[in-house]
Amino acid sequence: MGLTAFVLTVLMLLPLCVFAGDYVIGEGDGLDISVWGVRDLNVSVRVRPDGKITIPGLGDVTASGVTPRELQSTLAVKFKSLVKNPIVSVAVREITNSKVYVFGGGVSSGVFDLNRRTTLLQLLCAIGNSGPGVAPGPVARGQGGGGVAANSRVADYKNAYVLRNGAKIKQDFHKLFVDGDVGEDMVIESNDAVFIPQLLDKNIYVLGAVNAPRVIEYREGMTVMEAVLESGGFTRFAKLNDTSILRKNGKKDVTISIKAKDLIMDGDLAQNIKLKPGDYIIVKEGMF
């Protein structure tokens, strides 16, 4: 293997090595502990609910809340009372403590086991491809179903966030999950909570002087003229330059004036504003 190929191989494996080294042991995890050259001290143990493990010759040792490397250092010091210059290794045989919590009106809430290094994008794909009661893919496994309920709800990714240790460390998943900006991705850690609310109003309402006033399901990138055309177009009495969008901006109501005549006759594309879920398009009527 050439030097370049070797370096690329190391870089590819590095994230997994770092993840393994940074993993924090928790209650219920299975550990394999060995002391080189002393077979009688090699044991397989499970971390008890009190966070401790029992080691022959040492008794109870706290294992929960530390990384395998930190536990290895602690045991190396303790084993000096039994072995001269002990070489200790700690391997996590079974992970039961690494979980992420997904909740909110935009998804079916669930608890997922992180059985390997998992990013936010991987988690969203896992829960997004699952129907209600269907287990996610290989990256994470959910308890109690997990997944977006097909055709019954729409997730509001712009107002979603990741909660870690009580603080929001990542907000707005839209660029990542909808626009495909992988630069917005991040690694999910044990005990992270992912909140995805429901998009409460996903419709566009077209009212007034149009041939077929209607409610239209919102689509990403939809414009005023698209909505008007889907509503049968303007009536013969419509005051084209007296069209407006009523939009909810937080707790405030905002009115955006649209000069539809300038758009149609003069090609003023600035008037063809992109809509947002919940917008009302009002076309006023006049005799002249």
Tell me the layout of helices and strands.
Layout (H helix, E strand, L loop, with lengths): L2 H20 L7 E6 L7 E4 L5 E4 L3 E4 L5 H11 L9 E7 L4 E5 L6 E5 L5 H9 L11 E4 L17 E4 L2 E5 L2 H4 L15 E3 L7 E6 L5 E4 L6 H7 L7 E12 L2 E7 L1 H7 L13 E6 L3
Taking pLDDT < 50 over at least 5 consecutive residues as the criterion, the unreliable ranges are: 1-21, 129-152
Order of strands, main sheet, comes to: 8-7-6-11-9-10
N to C succession of SSEs: HEEEEHEEEHEEEHEEEHEEHE
Largest sheet: 6 strands, mixed
Instruction: Give the beta-strand count.
Output: 16
Number of helices: 6
Strand content: 25-35%
Q: How helical, in percent, are the residues?
A: 10-25%
Give the C-alpha Rg.
29 Å
Structural description of this entry:
It contains six helices and 16 strands. It has 288 residues and is of the alpha+beta class.
Short description:
The protein has 288 residues and is an alpha+beta fold. The protein has six helices and 16 strands. The protein has helices at residues 3-22, 68-78, 120-128, 174-177, 224-230, 260-266; strands at 30-35, 43-46, 52-55, 59-62, 88-94, 99-103, 110-114, 140-143, 161-164, 167-171, 193-195, 203-208, 214-217, 238-249, 252-258, 280-285.
